[in-house]
Amino acid sequence: MKRIDISAETPVARTRRVRRMYRELHELYPYAHCELDFRSPLELLVATILSAQTTDVGVNKVTPTLFARYPDAAAYAGADRAELEELLRPTGFFRAKANSLITLGQALVERFDGEVPPRMADLVTLPGVGRKTANVVLGNAFGIPGLTVDTHFGRLVRRMGWTDETDPVKVESAVGALVPRKEWTMLSHVLIFHGRRMCHAKKPACGVCPVARWCPSYGEGELDPDKARKLLKYEMSPAAVASA
Ligand code: SF4
User: Which Pfam family, any one of them, does this sequence belong to (predicted)?
Assistant: First the structure.
C-alpha cells in the first residue's frame, strides 16, 4: 500500500478524511472508555490528578482505599498530610499529589460548597486542574463533550495529519473544528485507546492498522502484518485483529 500524500489536502477533504478515520477507529474500539475507576465527579477529578506521570492501572490500585478513606472534599481538605502521602506513594510524585488533593479539597469547600463544578471556567481555577483534566471530568462525569489532549492524543493527531499544532489548547481547537462536538468525548477515548494499543510512540503497528490508508505516517512503524500483530498491546478479539 502507498502512503497517502496530504500536502495539497483541502479543508473539506481533511474533514472527510478525519471523520472517516474516526469512524473506523470507533468501530475498532466501540467499547473505548475512561480507564480510570470512579463513581462520582470528585472521584474522577482525584483519579485524573493522580494519573499524571503514571498509568491508569496504577491509579486504580490505590483509589479504592483512597476513596473509602476520603469520601468528600472536606475529607481531603482536612487530611493528615503524612497519611495521605503514604497512600499515594505508589503513584509517584506523592508529595506533590498529596498537596494537590489537600488544596483541591480546600478550594472545593471554600468556593463550591464541596461540590465539583460542572463548568470549564470554574474547573480550571482549581489547584492542579488544567484543561485536560477538566475535559476528562466534564466528558465522563457530567456528559459534557470535551477533547482530552494528552500525550497519546497529541501524538496521534499529528501523526495522522489532522493538525500540525503542538500546543494542547491549539490542538484541542483544531481537532474540535474537524469533528462534531457530540463526538468529542468518544473521539478522545478512541484515540487514547489506539495510542495505547496499536499506534505506539516508538513502534506503531502500521501493518495491521485499519486507518493506514488514510494515514500520512503509514510506514513509520512495522509493516509486516505478522510482526505488527505481535506489537499489539490489548484485548482486541482475534477475529478483529485478523481482519484488520
Ligand atoms: S499505526 Fe501507523 S498507520 Fe496506523 S495511525 Fe499509527 S502511524 Fe498511522
Answer: EndIII_4Fe-2S
Judge contact between 124 and 104, C-beta under 8 A. Answer: no
What are 31-81's pLDDT values in tens digits? 999 999 999 999 999 999 999 889 999 999 999 999 999 999 999 999 999
- According to the CATH classification, is domain 41-141 in 3.40.50.300? no
238 has pLDDT over 70: no
**Residue among 220, 227, 229, 234 to mutate when testing ligand 1 (max atoms within 8 A of CB):** 220
Whether 9 shows a pLDDT value over 60: the answer reads yes
Domain edges within the chain: 11-30+148-243, 41-141
Distance 186 CA to ligand 1 centre (A): 19
- CB of 1 closer than 8 Å to CB of 156: no
User: Which pLDDT tens digit goes with each residue over 97-115?
Assistant: 999 999 999 999 999 999 9
CATH says 11-30+148-243 is which class? mainly alpha
pLDDT of res. 151: 87
Pocket-testing residue among 190, 202, 217, ligand 1, by greatest number of atoms within 8 A of Cβ: 217
